[in-house]
Automatic annotation (TrEMBL):
Superkingdom of the source species: Bacteria
Domain IstB-like ATP-binding residue range list: 170-309
Transmembrane spans: none
Classification via SUPFAM superfamilies: P-loop containing nucleoside triphosphate hydrolases (SSF52540)
Single GO molecular function: ATP binding
Lineage of the organism: Bacteria, Bacillati, Bacillota, Bacilli, Bacillales
Cross-referenced CDD domains: AAA
Pfam family, one: IstB_IS21
Protein name: IstB-like ATP-binding domain-containing protein
Organism (species): Hydrogenibacillus schlegelii
An annotated GO BP: DNA replication
Coiled coil segments of this chain: none
Signal peptide: none
InterPro entries recorded: IstB_ATP-bd, P-loop_NTPase
Length: 326
């Protein structure tokens, strides 16, 4: 094991002046190290050329040794945290080192990228890891899974780019049949392909938006919902329905997304036609606004493939494998 680089260099020149005998000793130790010999042979550098970079070579060996037992980024002691020196042959035939992200740094960057691409609100953390391959197809969910696969093929082919007339999905059915799990699989697959997703539980989304009314937070949040590549509304109709939810949130968001060619996906316990009564019953000053409810439901119908998903309630008797639901 080599001593720390500063100590080795001080010993080679204790007074700050070159000492050839000490330098020769250090060079001999370097050239006798099997790691150095392997490095020189692998990149085709002459020994004397490699020794011109003796300080960098010492640092490389020191950092390589510290990397061997590194538990993670928090323990990294490198000057360039999270990066490892990679030896290369320079244009002059000498030895140079380029710094590249280590495995831990790459993992951290990927996690950060996924956080930027995959926003969730009140969605169980374990659903972030679900992919289409985790789904177990049966007679109850086969049509919904096929519709999701077709949607993914279109969306990934476009890399999430807006497209005029883009259609989403509206998956409805009883409690606990795996609708949210299916949407989580869609979301995770999209994020893997570099498509941004906002996956929100509707009652929680409404509460958060309402809390931001009166400042710039509300407008910023609406803008994000309008511009994310794919927006997933989980459990539409479970929120406290009011004229404000319908007219200030759902209608402008869905209209803007449709005009911009950005698809929206939904889960609900209700078929679209039942939304007419739900949102038409949201009154303003005692007046039932059926026209706006019709506009909302038509926006959903014309921009979504409507699919029923049935089956047993997996919350009551979860199977050994297959979709889990919250």
């Amino acid at each position: 094991m080599f001593e720390p680089i500063k100590a080795a260099l001080r010993r080679a020149a204790p007074d700050g002046l070159p000492d050839r005998s000490k330098g020769t000793e250090l060079e001999g130790r370097l050239l006798s190290d099997p790691r150095v010999r392997e490095l020189i042979d692998s990149i085709g550098v002459a020994p004397e050329a490699a020794l011109r970079s003796a300080p960098a070579l010492l640092r490389y060996l020191e950092e390589a040794a510290s990397c061997a037992g590194c538990p993670g980024l928090s323990a990294c002691t490198h000057a360039f945290r999270g990066h490892v020196p990679v030896p290369r042959r320079g244009e002059d035939g000498g030895l140079i080192f380029a710094y590249e992200p280590c495995a831990f740094e790459r993992q951290a960057r990927e996690a950060a990228r996924r956080r930027r691409l995959f926003r969730t609100l009140s969605i169980p953390e374990e659903l972030r890891a679900v992919r289409m391959g985790d789904l177990v197809r049966d007679e109850h969910n086969a049509r919904a899974i096929a519709a999701a696969e077709a949607f993914l093929a279109r969306q990934i082919r476009r890399s999430g780019r807006p497209e005029a007339g883009a259609r989403g999905l509206y998956v409805y059915g009883p409690f606990g049949v795996g609708k949210s799990y299916l949407m989580a699989a869609v979301a995770g697959t999209l994020v893997d392909a570099g498509v941004s997703v906002f996956f929100a539980y509707v009652p929680a989304l409404v509460s958060e938006l309402r809390a931001g009314v009166g400042d710039e937070t509300f407008l910023d949040q609406l803008r994000e919902l309008m511009t994310v590549d794919v927006f997933i509304l989980d459990d539409l109709g479970a929120e406290q329905v009011t004229p404000w939810v319908r007219d200030a949130v759902l209608l402008p968001v869905l209209s803007t997304r449709a005009e911009g060619g950005r698809p929206t996906l939904f889960t609900s316990n209700l078929p679209p036609e039942d939304l007419l009564e739900l949102y038409g019953g949201a009154s303003r000053d005692g007046v039932i606004d059926e026209l706006r409810a019709h506009r909302l439901v038509e926006r959903i119908r014309t921009r979504s493939e409507v699919v029923f998903m049935g089956g047993p309630n997996r919350r009551l008797s979860p199977p050994a494998a297959g979709p889990r639901t919250r």
